[in-house]
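I am still getting used to backbone structure tokens and would like to learn alongside you. Would you supply a protein for us yourself, any chain you care to pick? Start from the sequence, derive the backbone structure tokens from it, and show both lines together. Go ahead whenever you are ready, and we will take it from there.
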Amino acid sequence: MENTHEPTLTEPFVAAVAEAERLVATADFIHDEHDLAEGYEYLAGSIAAVLQLSGVHGTSHPHFVSSTGPYTKMGLDNPDTLYYHANIEPGAEYLVTGTRGNTVDLSFQVLKGDYSATNVPNGDDAFDDRRLDIDVDGNYRLRFGPPKDDPEPEYFVLGEGASTLAVREVYGDWTSERKGTIRIERVDTAGTPPVAADLDRMRKRYRAAARMLVQRIHTWFNFPRWFYLDLPVNTLTEPRLTPGGLSTQYSSVGHFDLAEDEALLITVPKSDSPYQGFQLGSRWYISLDYVNHQTSLNSAQAQVDPDGVIRMVVSARNPGIANWIETTGRRQGIMQFRWQRTDRAITPADGPSVQVLAVDEVAKHLPHHETNRIDDSGWRARIADRQRAFADRML
């Protein structure tokens, strides 16, 4: 009998969800139901993200959307960063206007579709706002487009294969720093409407979302294998320029594997860089809950000892100090330092050292333990400050 089944419009996406669920459920780093539940939460956020992003996939009328956030995480998102992006194409010209907030860093990066830099020879593919002409009111204008014979000073060339303009706003003090504004328009389509959606376009949208979902899971599953898991466990690398990342960002990476009664004592000099941050991530290569737990600290938030050194303790159990970094019950995970907006090389002397200790032995290895201590009420107030500052930032 002839099969007369007609595929529904959403059928490719439904199949992609099933494939993504299979990948999550069979991940080789799942140890218990907690790990699996976290995987399904990651899957839910990924589904939400690709359904939204597939709707703004066109380049004729671009606008900035959130690339990743607390509920649509990917790519070891930095808790201190707001991520935006707009879809672009190298043959068109785009005008970006905005006002500079007082965040510690504002940066721009042009990417290809495979999350890599476009590698424009003159360095136009990654820069921070120090290259912009910002007026006394914090306003700026810049243009992106194809090569010109006589471009204006604020013109940045789009490299071959350019598909995304990514923007990052980085926070040091969550309680006092505020984001600015930003807008993008394509010069030749400004003032015109985009083509209205029809069934063919919606069919393409669901197919695009299906591809994006499976690619997203595959891509970030592999990142820890490529850059972290071959390193000795419970160590951090010397600082280096972030591969394929921002031109002024250095990073130090590692992964942890700790029993419930073990801890890592991480010691690092407070940097003269405007931004220095540390975070934990899960094996799903996403940040741990940084709103309701202290799973990250930057140099504006951390307690700095009198000798100019930041001492942090990574553990599941609370060691009773202000710079406790919570694993939130995970035995294994990712660790990363970032230094941004640097104007010099970050050297091994600027980097972290790591020591594995029993949690009960931590106090003996903290030379300023008396001033590092925090009680339960102090800790609760510290977390409440994070929750409130995060809520203000997202609004």
